[in-house]
Write a structure and sequence with these properties.
This protein is an all-alpha fold. It has six helices and no strands. It starts with 12 loop residues before the first helix and ends in a 9-residue tail after the last helix.
Length: 129
């Protein structure tokens, strides 16, 4: 797999489904994931998590270690691609963060700042995001 054209690790799963005659719903049920998660996985819009890798191993489709290594290689290739496309300003390239995760992170940061402020008995400025 080159950094120029990485293939998503779940790319071959749809072909495997057709080969054994399973529907997408049946595959989701066997994996123990939602239909939405299964669709995102089969269409290459989400990563193969360690839990999904173990589920694939449980149903006999792959080895969990192989799946996680393949996902890590894909993630590294995508990071290299993003870094090559990013302007050279010394700024680290970060993955986009979903808005709900950003809000949760801001809330946890605010709580942590308040706890530190209470511990130190000083007021800590916590900007609103």
């Amino acid at each position: 797999m080159s950094a120029q054209d990485p293939t998503h690790p779940a790319a071959g799963l749809r072909d495997d489904l057709e080969e054994v005659g399973w529907t997408v719903n049946e595959f989701a049920t066997r994996l123990g994931v939602s239909r939405n998660t299964d669709s995102r996985l089969l269409n290459g819009r989400c990563a193969i998590s360690p839990e999904v890798a173990l589920a694939l191993e449980r149903i006999g489709w792959s080895d969990a270690d192989f799946c996680t290594r393949r996902q890590a290689s894909y993630d590294l290739a995508m990071a290299r691609r993003a870094q090559e496309a990013a302007p050279r300003r010394g700024i680290a390239v970060q993955r986009p963060v979903h808005p709900s995760c950003r809000a949760d992170r801001a809330e946890r940061l605010g709580r942590l700042q308040r706890m530190i402020g209470e511990f130190l008995s000083v007021e800590v400025y916590a900007p609103q995001l």
